[in-house]
Design goal:
435 residues, alpha+beta, Rossmann fold, 2 domains
Length: 435
């Protein structure tokens, strides 16, 4: 079993709508690792786009398991959405080499520096749309076509727009091959919506603009819903918007991290990241959002508790990750721009405290702060870490310097137990470029 499989970090993991790469989470068990490899080898050996009969049933089994452990266990309740997640063959929407990762809750590269969204995010956004049989839905950001396929059995029609021509054409072919006849794909800039088919009952945006594109608000029906990640390049909030008396009423749902909406939306972006000065946002967890409150700026939070008491080494708040099931997901992450041509090293510091920490299913499942670097095509170019920590210990300060690969353009910082068991707390996480 290759170590990457044990750790659940596929070697080609890319960013984009970054998911959960350090993810030996519930479903990474030895058996899964074996079947994923076997499936891949079989598929490649046959040179086939279709998985052979044997692996198709293993794919189905893996999908059910993923839905149980990553979708239902993570709080998705809508039975129709769960059913669609159980039935949609995500492996058909990624390339053959990526299929072995199709039923992990993570984004995967689909070419052109873009990614297929992680299954939990797809389920979460779909549930937030509250899809009804009669709905006509507009999606911005077709990507692989997977999100559109999940929506297809839940609504009447799906109209989806992709700005990258090769992706749009490929998604249209995949959707046609698999019989998703109520999905209509168009290549173009989704910023302008699809006026010919407006108004829509629901709009789902799977790339992130800085604000709601006015054409999309205009093309939503009165009483309709829009689910959209809005914000800065690396700091976004998922919003549920309801159109009420002609106005968009916004409800913030959770912090998130999507690829940017390019085209018109990107040209109008006012806040731009500075790749020469990467920083951690809200590293002391003092800014909170939502109800119940969770730390702002940190995404894909799993098994994280925000704690406010006199024990915090910095400010009032800190975070604690708890996990009792070896291999289970337990993390939070954030992304940033970092240019390896301008930044040689990152100086990292934090406070950490541990209680009964032991490795998870293997010695690779350990609590860490990891930084994964990505190149301009969102291919992984390196990973560095601070940690691991074991056992029980009170607050201690740790500092280190981590080398930045020359080819790095973006990075993801993750904290958590990352498959280990016990309890770990973090506070005052800081990161600074050493030029
Ligand atoms: N929903 C997709 C994943 C989305 S990734 C899936 O299920 O696979 C985001 C996608 O949005 C990318 O393919 C990107 O090319 C596309 N995109 C970015 N800006 C866009 C725009 N202005 N209009 C349409 N699509 C856009």
């Amino acid at each position: 079993m290759p170590p990457d499989c044990v750790r659940g970090i596929p070697p080609t993991q890319s960013a984009g709508l970054w998911a959960t790469p350090v993810k030996c989470e519930p479903m990474i068990e030895k058996s899964v690792c074996h079947w994923t490899i076997r499936c891949c080898v079989l598929a490649v050996a046959l040179g086939a786009g279709e998985a052979p009969g044997q692996s198709r049933s293993t794919m189905t089994a893996a999908r059910q398991r993923m839905v149980d452990e990553e979708i239902v266990a993570a709080g998705i309740r809508n039975p129709r959405v769960i059913k669609s997640m159980r039935e949609t063959p995500r492996h058909e929407f990624v390339s053959v080499p990526q299929r072995k990762y199709a039923y992990f809750d993570m984004a995967l590269p689909i070419g052109e520096s873009q990614t297929i969204s992680p299954p939990f995010v797809v389920a979460y956004m779909t549930e937030a749309l509250n899809p009804q049989k009669q709905d006509r839905v507009l999606e911005i950001g077709t990507g692989s076509g997977y999100q559109a396929a999940v929506l297809s059995p839940l609504v009447r029609e799906v109209y989806t727009i992709e700005i990258v021509k090769s992706l749009g054409l490929k998604a249209a072919r995949t959707l046609r091959r698999l019989g998703y006849d109520n999905v209509h794909v168009k290549v173009g800039d989704g910023y302008k919506g699809w006026p010919e088919h407006a108004p829509f009952d629901k709009i789902i945006v799977t790339c992130s603009p800085e604000g709601v594109p006015p054409a999309l608000a205009a093309q939503l029906k009165e009483g309709g819903r829009m689910v959209i990640p809005i914000g800065e390049r690396y700091q976004q909030t998922m919003y549920l918007m309801r159109k009420t008396e002609g106005k968009m009423v916004a409800e913030a749902m959770r912090p998130t991290l999507f690829v940017p909406m390019i085209g018109h939306a990107e040209d109008r972006r006012r806040v731009l990241p500075d790749p020469a000065n990467p920083t951690i946002r809200n590293g002391d967890f003092e800014r909170v959002a939502g109800e119940p409150p969770t730390p702002a700026g940190w995404h894909y939070q799993r098994q994280l508790e925000l704690i406010t008491d006199g024990d915090a080494p910095s400010g009032k708040n800190f975070v604690t990750f708890h996990n009792s099931e070896p291999g289970r997901g337990c993390r939070a992450l954030q992304g940033m721009a970092v240019d390896g041509r301008k930044v040689n090293e990152l100086g990292v510091s934090l406070y950490v405290r541990g209680k009964g920490i032991r490795p998870g299913q293997s010695r690779h499942q350990q609590p860490l702060l990891t930084i994964t670097f990505y190149d301009q095509n969102r291919g992984t170019v390196g990973q560095r870490a601070l940690g691991p920590w074991r056992g029980t210990f009170s607050w201690q300060r740790e500092t280190t310097r981590l080398k930045v690969p020359k080819r790095a353009r973006e990075a993801i910082v993750r904290i958590g137990l990352l498959g280990a068991v016990g309890e770990i707390s973090f506070d005052a996480i800081a990161l600074k470029a050493v030029k």
